[in-house]
Amino acid sequence: MTQPVSPPRDSITDKVPQDRPSAWRGLLARTDVRTLSLLGVLAALILIGGITKPDEFLDTRNLQLVLTQASVIGVVTVGMTFVIVSGGIDLSVGAIVALASVWATTVATQEYGFAGILFTAVVVGVGCGLVNGVLIAYGAMVPFIATLAMLASARGLALQITDGKTQIVTVPSVLDLGERDAYVLGIPPLVLVFAVVTVIGWLVLNRTTFGRRTVAVGGNPEAARLAGIDVRRQRLYLYLLSGLCCGIAAFLLIVLSGSGQNTNGNLYELDAIAAAIIGGTLLTGGRGTITGSVLGVLIFTTITNIFALNNLQSDVQQIAKGAIIVAAVLVQRRTASTT
Amino acid sequence: MAPEPPLLSMSGITKSFPGVRALDGVDLDVLAGEVHCLLGQNGAGKSTLIKVLAGAHQPDTGEIRWRGEQVTLRSPIAAMRLGIATIYQELDLVEHLSVAENVHLGHEPTAAGFVVRGKAAKESTAALLKRLGHPEIDPARLVGELSAAQQQIVSMARALSHDVRLIVMDEPSAALDPDEVDNLFRIVGDLTAAGVAVVYISHRLEEIRRIGDRVTVLKDGRAVANGLPAKTTPTREVVALMTGRNVEYVFPDRPDSPPSGEPVLTVRGLSRAGEFEALDLEVRPGEIVGLAGLVGSGRSEILETVYGARKPTTGQVLVDGKPLKPGSVRAAVRAGLGLAPEERKAQALLMLESVTRNVSVSSMSRFSSGGWIDRGAELGAARSATRELSLRPDNPSVPVRTLSGGNQQKAVLARWLLRGCKVLLLDEPTRGVDVGARAELYAVVRRLADEGLAVLLVSSEVPEVLGLADRVLVLREGRVVHTAPARELDEHRVLDLVMEGSPAS
């Protein structure tokens, strides 16, 4: 979300997916006000983009680019949502993405090819999550502090591995996935991964015992404990899950940029937390939705894209992001108090 | 000449929170220069009442008159401006500030409007501490370095640094040694001699007799006695007001033959340092065993230790003859124990969630395979469990927070019913439950016992224990002082047992 956007030049105006009332009615009836308002904001942004830069913004390539850029932070945000719903926080996600991306692109790792890179990225992510989880669940450390420590040390280790240099990926199968016209099942591969992670995340949070336990631990840890839930083990699993998402995101970033850098994932933790919050996740735990968080990511990524297309500087983008966070929380408090 | 109006007169105060009516038309008159004691069990409404008085809660209805004039206490500052100061049990001091800074917090002596005159603050603090009999406390020390008793003195100095007419003290003696209590009483005496009124909250009846002038007793959010003479009202009458019933409940019939069979729950020599000692008890299937005792007798601590939520110092808990791993809730739940805790909202319910999810949380494996929840089966199971307990409304999809206190309790019971637990531990089952809904809850508990459940019941209401339990263990200061079938006990006998050692009257 923080990378600059360079929209493609060739412009083919494509139709924006408009609301088709008949097909959507059933879905809308079951969607809550919060999700609807987020969809409304996203629609308004698409409208603004379409009006200000009709040729460039609505170009298929550009929309693909928006989704592709949303993929990396989106996968991180799915993991973050679980952690926040459980009443925790993970400040180390950006640093874990950086560490996993550089560890997976060292010369030694690249010798093992595609599988070596993917495997290393995931294992490093899960490993960092394990350290976080053990410190928080069994070492009784405050999540803010444990993950802040991980943020610092993972970034430091990433710098040590790269010595500040960009590690270029030379494995063709990895680079091919990042090509502009690479498609899997007709979808850009990164977007496909994002979609799969989102769907799995939604199912796990809403349809499994794991998801229920997560919500229970976040909503009332004492009640969860007295109901017979192993609160500590659940906390451990949640940080492992966040680490896993970071590992996947690191792999996506390697594919996207064709390299590994120790500056990767800079401020991802803030972007992911912000997306979860505007998506309606309570920072105190116990409530949150994957749908809301993913919409939050799409809103932020779209804003970044529109601003870049209109040649507005990143300082303006940052101010707009801040304003949106405040507005979203105020609106949610209003709707929460009236229901 | 018209008689002087009371310093404070509260009338018809009501205050409701979601699911519970904390205050239900309470009256309280406090005269200048008197020590007015406020008595009541946990949850009787004392804290809510003093928070209304301190301006921290706004009453739903009712009138507050201060020196004859109607007032609205919009905020703690408004109450303080009138001269009402509250010393809470949980001391509200800033640990990282000095004594003088705490005493003058919010009204620091200043020069030119904003420069704090530290020396003046220290001098006036030292004078206040001397007046309170503690000149040894250095106004420059950090509050976090002081003992609990000293912190309380600082809290009192803060109250006195305002022009105070009425001080509310919430269990001020709880953290004090006997000689510190004497000093506290001397201070209270000095204050009242100077015309300040004191509202004194304590569970210790002997203290109330020593320093109190009048007593108001709260129960279930109502004042069951107003302004009784503190020195001459018999202790038994006061305790009976606190623990007694103000409505005749219909208790369900006991089975004709006492339950036989092997005990499902056995507790042997269970102790926790400072809480309770050498507890032995047995509960058979179909039997309801009650623990009766006053606050501080270790009632709730016993249940939580049996359940594994606290680790015992010594002793064993056995279910079906097999010892449980001490201090493990999961082991207890797996062995078939279920707890309906005293603080339902804080300890049992997921307030943001539906009734279904609250009921299913302990039995998720029953309608899931490979972690995947069959939501149809879940809803069906929750519905049949809540229907069996006649939970209202008959729709388990509603959020649990919208339920009344009695129905929230039924949701907790449904959780354990669905789990198929063998031993139900009930801690104050009718706390926060409307008086009208209690009889139904009693019938539910008895029916569950008749179906073979073993029940261990704790209640601060003696008639509840006597009416519901088959067998009663009377506790005093963490020890069982008497065990008998409930039929052979009456309220007077139990009150005599729990009060043994307090001043007779």
UniProtKB/TrEMBL annotation, chain A:
UniProt-listed CDD domains: TM_PBP1_transp_AraH_like (cd06579)
Segments forming a coiled coil: none
Membrane topology field: Multi-pass membrane protein
Transmembrane annotation, as ranges: 33-51, 63-84, 91-108, 114-135, 142-162, 182-205, 236-256, 290-309
GO molecular function per UniProt: transmembrane transporter activity
InterPro entries: ABC_transp_permease
Localization of this protein: Cell membrane
Pfam families for the chain: BPD_transp_2
Gene Ontology cellular component terms for the protein in this record: plasma membrane
Main localization, broad class: membrane
Keyword Transmembrane helix: yes
Lineage, uppermost ranks: Bacteria, Bacillati, Actinomycetota, Actinomycetes, Kitasatosporales
Domain of life: Bacteria
Protein name as it appears in the record: Putative Ribose transport system permease protein RbsC
PANTHER family named among the record's database cross-references: ABC TRANSPORTER PERMEASE PROTEIN YPHD-RELATED-RELATED, RIBOSE IMPORT PERMEASE PROTEIN RBSC
Keywords: Cell membrane, Membrane, Transmembrane, Transmembrane helix
TrEMBL record, chain B:
Entry keyword Repeat: yes
Compartments reported by the entry: Cell membrane
Keywords: ATP-binding, Cell membrane, Membrane, Nucleotide-binding, Repeat, Translocase, Transport
Domain of life of the source: Bacteria
Keyword Ribonucleoprotein: no
Protein topology in the membrane: Peripheral membrane protein
Source species: Streptomyces afghaniensis 772
Gene Ontology terms, MF aspect: ATP binding; ATP hydrolysis activity
InterPro entries: AAA+_ATPase, ABC_carbohydrate_import_ATPase, ABC_transporter-like_ATP-bd, ABC_transporter-like_CS, P-loop_NTPase
Protein name as catalogued: Putative Ribose import ATP-binding protein RbsA 1
GO cellular component labels: plasma membrane
Domain ABC transporter: 8-245, 259-502
Native organism taxonomy: Bacteria, Bacillati, Actinomycetota, Actinomycetes, Kitasatosporales
